[in-house]
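Section: Multi-chain targets

For targets with more than one molecule, the full set of components is provided together so that the structure can be written out for the assembly as a whole rather than chain by chain. Components appear in the order listed by the source. The example entry contains two components.
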Amino acid sequence: MADQQLLDKIKAFEGREYGRVYAWDPVNAPMIRHWCEMMGITNPLYTDREFAREAGYPDIVAPPAMLQVWCMAGLDMENYPPGSTDENSFEVLKLIESHGFESVVAVNSDLKFDRYVAAGERLYYTSRVDAVTEEKATGLGTGHFVTVIMTYSVERAEGREDEKVGEQLFRVFKFKPAVRPKPETGTDSAIPKITRPRPGISDDSRFFWEGCEAGKLLVQRCADCQTLRHPPAPVCAKCHSFNWDTVEASGKGHLYSFVVMHYPEIPPFEYPNPVGLVELDEGVRLIAGLVGADRSELQIGQRLQVEFARFQDEELTLPQFRPVAQ
Amino acid sequence: MSDLPLSGKAAIVGLGATEFSKNSGRTELRLAMEATLQALADAGIDPREVDGFSSYSIDKVPEYEIARLLGCDDVRFFSTVPHGGGAACGPIMHAAMAVATGVAKTVVVYRSMNERSWYRFGNGQYGFGDTPIFENVNYGWYMPHGLMTPASWVAMFARRYMHTYGATSEDFGRVSVAARDFAATNPNAFFYEKPITLEEHQASRWICEPLHLLDCCQESDGAVAMIITSVERARDLKQKPVIIKGAAQGIADGQQSMTSFYRGDITGLPEMGVVAKEVYRQSGLGPGDIQTAVIYDHFTPFVLPQLEEFGFVPRGEAKEFVREGHHARGGKLPINTHGGQIGEAYIHGMNGVAEGVRQVRGASVNQVDNVENVLVTAGTGVPTSGLILGVA
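Its structure, encoded as tokens over all components, is:
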């Protein structure tokens, strides 16, 4: 179950606003030129003042995608110009991390531009926590998405209202990794590996799993009326006899139906994960993973052959089916 | 009306619900109490008069706690129906039986869960173990292969249905588009003012082929409660009585919970056939007497065989029915006029029963003309249930 108390606490951050972070330098020609060189941009609007003026701008303008650059700290982390807020608009991440969500990944950075910014203009941004989600399960692991929106403005002389020039939506995922990194050789790790769920095995079904271990696909048979049955049961649904034995199936059959699982991605399975409802030539059906087939080529009716795959240090053996020629 | 004792003996006289959301922000017990007190106020019944309760499995709010908080001191009937959403109509049936036999006079039926913010059914993490209890042995045939979500179990039936009858993903999409169209005009729906197109359905990402994202409902927080009493008493209460004309549960040949893969044919829902036969028998009604229906739609594909099991169309022909738009706004049989679980919220079918009540009262935001009888169905792929509700 998700931790409701944590959720209440982190949800309280939604809507919280943070003060200004200023740019170290006004928008300027050298930084624009460096950016354009790095990006391979040759638009004269960014480098030729006369051209920019003819196009109706007061001076050269900056490539819009540079928006975030102007207010960056620089080489020293968290080193912002005087007057900037010392609050961190991502402070909620610390709280989430303290509950065991130790990993982080940036997932979105969406920029919106109201207008070009021109050389000489000085920028700052303010931040607002847009959303903190409930716990989400993803391929990376489970955790919380945090979205912060930074609004960029141009500072005006006193008496004139500052002008908004753009916006950046930044979203990160703070999570507990689904698959933890392998411990270094020689260290003893207490972290259990994520494994396939193991089947519950009862006196009625043990023969099936022991058969798999031995590389045999066994089907239960009523010892009295000879009816085959799967899944196994303690009694025949047809004649109600409790006497049963097993027969080894040929392992041949056809695809009766199938699915291809995409979401959610649950470790340790690989996705897309094709799973089939297989009808054996002996007449009973069973569920099993499909291997050796492009999922776009899977078709109801196609012939299949069983094989046995060992998982998790050989503690689990499962039947799987592979397409064969008709 | 038939002479069977259940039909026409009991009525739904009160309806209450919380808002539906992704995070209610309060306890399930509180949601249950809000919905129950609202339903009692709607009916004009003193909470202390309640003498019976019924809900269904996976709900964690005990009836005795609701009884304690209502101040009940003479409760003589309580039941919990198994199989989650498959039970959605079951508590109404149990309440009607209790009322019809005189075991109880005033029964609260409720569903209250923070399924979205507290649990998630669809995350594939069920905590199954390997002790040899039935559930672990049974899911042992699926979980080790990764076939571990409700969407994946439904998808297995859907693929075979498509193969056998030539239905397509677009046909499932038509169910979704119609539901979202109704939801778009229902202010209580998740997807109020957010209709979708068939193209958007087709472009939505895969959850489990052949199911797209827009074939699946959204897990929800919320509560719904109703009050059931005798038809005689209902005449003197505040609301127009909603008569329980038919109420049935069903298990059929080869039944399992979500995984009835071993039947001769897996394109039908024979347990729903059992329910259909019984509600028609009890009520003396047939498909032609139904003006609108609430057809359980946690996933779109099972809507089609339900239309077939209830005789609205012959076997395998539901795809033509939806292609002609008969299930949509203005069609021959508009279904899920609240937006369904696809569009309104996933309260495991109890919000569908609520829409059935509103249609009979004439109080739906998407009211169908001249409603006399409404069919309501419960969860599919599991042991299930259904109702025919109607005017007196």
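The first helix of chain A runs from residue 4 to 11.
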